[in-house]
Amino acid sequence: MGRLLAGRILQGLAVVWVVATLTFALLHSAPGDPFSYQSGRRIDPEIRAHWRYVYCLDRPLSAQYVCYVRSIASGDLGYSISKQRPVRDVLIDYVPRTLELMFLGLCASFLIGITLGVLQARHRGTVVDWGSRGVSLLFYSMPDFWLALMMALVFAYWIPLFPISGIEDVVAAPTYGWWQHAGDHLRHLVLPVATLALMTTAAIARFQRAAMLDAIGLDFVVTARAKGVSEGAIVRHHVLRNALLPVITLAGVTLPSLLGGAVLVELIFSWPGMGYLTAMAVESRDYAIVTSSVLITSVLVVVGTIAADLLYALADPRVRAQ
Amino acid sequence: MTEPLLSVRDLRTYFRTSAGVARAVDGVSFDIAANESVGVVGESGCGKSVTSLSLLRLIQRPGTIEPGSHIEFEGIDLLALDDESMRKIRGNRIAMIFQEPMTALNPVFTVGAQLAEVPRVHSDIGRRDAWARAVEMLGVVGIPDPAERAKSYPHQLSGGMRQRVMIGMALMLSPALLIADEPTTALDVTIQAQILELLAELRAKTAMSVLLITHDLGVVAESTSRVIVMYAGEIVEQAGVRELFAAPHHPYTEGLMAAMPRAGEKRERLTVIPGTVPSPYDWPAGCRFHERCPYAWERCESEHPPLYQIGAGHVSRCHLAVEPERRATPHEPRAARAGVTA
Amino acid sequence: MLVLRWAAAGTLVVAICAALWRAAHPPRGATGARAALARYAAHPSAVLALIALVSLYVLSALAPWLATHDPIAILERTLSNHAPSRAFLFGTDYAGRDVFSRVLYGARISLSIALLATSISVVVGTLWGVTAGFYGGRLDALMMRLVDAFLAIPRIVLLIAVGTLWAPLSMSALIIVLGLTAWFDTSRLVRAEVLSIKDREMVVAARALGATDLAIVKRHVLPNVLTPVIVAATLGVAGVIINEAALSFLGIGVPDPTPSLGNIIRDGTPYLASAWWVALFPGITLVITALAYNLAGDGLRDAMDPRQVDR
Q: How far is B68 from chain A (nearest CA, A)?
């Protein structure tokens, strides 16, 4: 098990390194000096000098690459022009909010998606099955930003249930006690998490249904029936336990799409997370933020995938024994 | 005359698919008495597995047991039962074991848990007690160190041990009838012998009836007292085991026996029955074996033979019963002439 | 006059669908591609999807002929953000432009970009997968590691990075970038297929007879690889369309004033509460297109894999 973990971490590091190389290539292939401005904002000459040093800007390309990788490895991700602060500091403020959204979105979509997939497999062929599959597919085919807009339109404008934006009620927040604050925060979470969850749930339900149907056809199900186990218990107990395993691996694929969805969803709901930051950086051409985004999201995906692999190894007794 | 434990009359199980209707089991009737061991032999595709699954009503879509079929067990009409009542019989009064124990056991649950599941499904027994019984059963089926072994997963056991576990699972509630679908086919010959021995031992202890399905005549000779030979969805011969081996009537049975390699015999080539089993979507009219039969004549092509009584407890679905002189003039079966060999 | 044109376009759509239907139901039994087509036609949802796609492509291709107004010309300012009416079927946007015509033209642009970008991704993905699978060893490991790395980056984030750094993107650059970020799944699929074929007897036999690598690839590998690639490509178009829309929504995709389904939504966002029609209709078009491609892809997958049993 320890070996497995070490191997995965090594692979993950390799991936991050490749991504870092990619961002380096992007930065240096872009027209114009990546560390300069087009919009005429002034940069402190001290900061300029710092860059020159850290990124080895007066040395040949290969040396610049080494400097770049070295600075990233030590946590220095550059300087954000639009925020006038080091990227690392900016990220520390923004990333946790995205993680909150991600975590809730992941939990919600897995819980609902798995339940839905199980139901669909159990009632295969009935209205419940193809009805929910149709609805699922509909949500799966929606652009995330459009779904977010429609959710906002319906649930914030037309039926003013939830707030349209932000992370808290800016006006009233200073006066809130602890409980009210939590409640307010939750209200603001609902729409963005719901939007993210709706899209991902569809993908998970599809997969889970297929995994269940695969497992249902397996021999041990016939044995269980021959033992007198009821159909419901077979699905819930025997089949699900087996079909849950492949779904864990889905986490590796779901994470990138969830993080990608976060960008536009955060933008539309003004949720101050990393996605919002990235979307805003487009306008101001803040290269440092945009490339750091690429790096950070890939790191998050790698960490998430390793966690999923570990979980799988723990859950499947055939793997655990190794 | 005591009531038979199991009575099957005119069982027909059809599979309706987009390719047509496959008549996998087409009019099968037999009885099993209490404390009797009956074997069912036939090659793949003859309908023996489907018959056994039908007995427990384990046939899934698109297969159905046709109306007109009749299965009576311990006086109860199994086909008239609702799902819940049928479920109560499975694993409890009738149990079944399967061919491939690796895939037949759930890979993510311990062996002990899967054994304990049986009493827990059928009664209110507590977890501890069920586990204790599971461990006990592991000992009964000859697994060493049962308390430890109960915590293992199927993939950690050998093929022979897994099959013992399957047998244990089936016997947890002392069923009156055990259906064994090719229990030894996937095992090595030495393990095969052990498993058959175990089954015989357990039968002796519990007076349980066994329906043993196999394609291996050797297994049948050793472990059963009565044999049913199936071909193309039908019973073609039924007799006591000694009589069947001493005096097989149906040409198919003859062919099966001739095809068996025997130790000490000197032969250059194995005898094969030429041709292949016809498709269940399209059983031929008349005798279903006539294309491959060395004795067939015009009657066989057009007239479907009924089960003729050959002797006491011996029936055969062959017109040779009424025209035995034809046996003196064998010829090349039509299938061999067409150049098709199995 | 316009009504006549629409009638003509409608007739064309029906004619194409009828021809496809006839091809899927030949009088005698069919084999090969025809049989697959027939299996496809057995799914009502897949058939509907195909009809939707044919309609969308025909109607949007004929946009200059079918539009009610000029999509770019700014009509009077007083007409801005008007609700849907007889004259303006989908209403007008903030600049007083007819949303219906813009959606028609926008669909034309978005749909063609999607097709072109997907073609690029198919070519790149297939080449990558074939090379990695065929040559194996170190090269394979390296190539697939690269794919893993790319897959770890959320596609939209990568597209945003590229779009921002190389702004403004020309139309062809946009298509190329979209294509070059969509080939990863295809390469994996292709590689898997190649690996399974590589060791089959016919390939080993061909090698033993001295066939060159290229010949083996052409004769044995490519035909087998075709099936999963077609399915993956169809499903992939849906993703490309949505990504292009997202980029246009953010302002780094198709440039104003050229309409693309994405940037029409962008125009409508500041006025979402009051002029919701501007954001609604292009979105619905996107959903229908993506849904149709997803259904078609599923239908193709079931049709082309004869081992699949009815689920």
A: 24
Task: List chains touching A (3+ CB pairs under 8 A).
Answer: B, C
Residue C311 pLDDT exceeds 60: no
> Is A322 in the B-facing interface, judged by CB distances under 8 Å?
no
Which whole number is the average pLDDT over B210-219?
89
**A290 and C160 in contact by Cβ < 8 A?**
yes
With an 8 Å Cβ cutoff, are A145 and C265 in contact? Answer: yes
User: Does the beta carbon of A45 lie under 8 angstroms from any beta carbon of chain B?
Assistant: no
Residue whose structure tokens are 């061919």: B99
| Tokens at B170, concatenated | 């089936």
Closest CA to B314 of B252, B260, B256, B242: B242
Q: Which residue has the tokens 């082309």?
A: C304
CATH number for the domain spanning C171: value is 1.10.3720.10
Q: Residue B73 carries which side chain, given as an amino acid letter?
A: F
pLDDT (tens digit, 9 = 90+) per residue, A86-131? 888 888 888 998 999 888 988 898 888 888 888 888 787 788 888 8
Residue C44 inside a domain? The answer is no
Cβ A190 vs Cβ A148: under 8 Å: no
Q: Which residue of C has its CA nearest to A15?
A: C149
> Does residue C233 lie in a domain region?
yes
- From the candidates C48, C160, C243, which should be mutated to test the interface with A, based on the most A CB atoms within 10 A? C160
Confidence (pLDDT) at C308: 45
**Domain membership of residue C176 as a residue range:** 71-292
Nearest Cα residue in chain B from A233: B121
Find out whether C281 and C90 touch, Cβ atoms under 8 Å.
yes
Residue C63 counted as domain residue = no
Residues C207 and B281: their CA atoms lie apart, in Å, by 42
For chain B, counts of helices (H) and of strands (E): 13, 13
- Inspect the interface and report whether the beta carbons of C153 and A150 lie closer than 8 Å: no
Rounded to a whole number of angstroms, the distance from the CA of A317 to the nearest CA of chain B is 6
Give the lowest-confidence range in B292-306, C25-39, C150-164.
Answer: C25-39
Per CB-CB distance under 8 Å, the chain C contacts of A15 are 145, 148-149, 152
CA-CA distance, C206 to C250, in Å (whole number)?
Answer: 52
Nearest CA in chain A to C243: A143
> Is pLDDT at B98 greater than 70 in this prediction?
yes
Cβ count within 10 A of residue B281: 13
pLDDT digits 0-9 by tens, C224-273 = 788 888 888 988 899 899 999 999 998 888 887 788 999 899 988 888 88
Q: Which two tokens stand for residue B329?
A: 């003039």
Q: Where are the beta strands (DSSP E) in B187-248?
A: 209-214, 226-231, 234-240
Query: Is residue B264 packed enough to be buried (19+ CB in 10 Å), middle (13-18) or exposed (0-12)?
Result: exposed
Q: Report chain C's mean pLDDT, rounded to a whole number.
A: 83
Residue A209 Cα, gap to closest chain B Cα (Å): 18
Beta strand pairing call for B209-214 and B177-181:
parallel
The angle formed by the CA atoms of residues B59, B63 and B64, to the nearest 5 degrees, is 85
Q: Which helix (H) or strand (E) holds C172?
A: helix C171-180
- Residue C28 phi, psi (nearest 5): -95, 170
Q: Helices A2-29 and C155-165 meet at what angle, rounded to 10?
A: 20
The answer to whether A219 contacts B104, with C-beta atoms less than 8 Å apart, is: yes
Determine the distance from the C-alpha atom of residue B38 to the mean position of all C-alpha atoms in its chain, rounded to a whole number: 9
pTM of the entire predicted model: 0.77
Considering its fold, how many domains does chain C have in total? 1
Tokens of A133: 């599959």
